[in-house]
Every structure is written in structure tokens, then in C-alpha cells.
């Protein structure tokens, strides 16, 4: 696995861990959103590891930040920051 891919996977794993911890700590109304975020992160990870993730070309996004920003509170949440870091890395490096 090349370095950029390894770093990208680390960012995905960090965001997944944050989402899983939030799932343990949050109220039930967030569980659907958190489970969807975790599933999306795992799908992106799987596609990356299998070489099926489309390159960004500096233009495309994964839609993660938008998806999480739609429901998360507060907007400076660690999860939103983590998915923002994934989006930024994807656009700049993949």
C-alpha cells in the first residue's frame, strides 16, 4: 500500500472510531445517522483498499462532510472535523 493510501485509511479509521464512540455516548435519535456515517466510511475504506475509489482530481468530493453537517451538533464536532480532514486529503492527494 502506498503512503497516500495508508494515510487516507488512517483518517478513515480515526473518523470511524469517533463515530463509534459517539454511538455509545449519544442519544438514540443520532444512532441512524451515526450508523450511516460508519457504513459510508467503511465502504470508502473498502473501495480504497480494493483500488475502486475514483480519483478526486482535485474536484470531486466524497460527500461525507455534507452528510454529517446535515445532522451533527455542534458544528465543531470532532466527527465533522475528522470527515472534513478525509475530504481535504482526498481532494489534495487522491
Helix content: 55-70%
What's the overall geometry?
globular
Please work out how many helical segments DSSP would assign. 4
Please give the number of β-strands.
Answer: 0
Order of helices and strands: HHHH
Mean pLDDT: 89
Low-confidence stretches: none
How would a textbook summarize the main sheet? none
**Rg over C-alpha atoms, rounded to the nearest angstrom:** 13 Å
Termini, distance in Å?
A: 13 Å
Beta-strand residue fraction? under 5%
Structural classification = mainly alpha
Description:
The protein has 94 residues and is mainly alpha-helical. The model has no long low-confidence stretch (mean pLDDT 89). The chain is built from four helices and no strands. The radius of gyration is 13 Å and the shape is globular. The protein is 68% helix and 0% strand.
Please give a handful of descriptors for the protein shown:
94 residues, globular, single chain, 0% strand, 4 helices
What can be said about this structure in brief?
This protein has 94 residues and is an all-alpha fold. It has helices at residues 3-25, 31-49, 64-69, 78-93.
What is the secondary structure topology, with strand pairs?
Blueprint lengths: L2 H23 L5 H19 L14 H6 L8 H16 L1
Helix pairs in contact: 1-2, 1-4
